[in-house]
Amino acid sequence: MTHHDPILFNPPGADPDRPVGVAAWELTAWAGMISRLAYWLDHATDATARELTQHFAGSPDREGMTCFLDHIVDRIHSLLNPDRALDADRRPR
Length: 93
Prior knowledge:
0% strand
């Protein structure tokens, strides 16, 4: 895996909310990986949940992190296809 220096993506004085070009296939791949991670985490053992808490102290618990990951996937999908975006209850708008 290649480590990318954040300076390359956020030069001094750059607007952190500026649009950044990313290929749609790459976003789709990210959404797929994040979705699988959320599913795995949602179905993980209690021992895994304890490890999550231990290694990511101060972060949301398993349920909160799964919800956050699902939200990221929904946001990516709505970027790629706004007509199929989901509302807060995960129903098509």
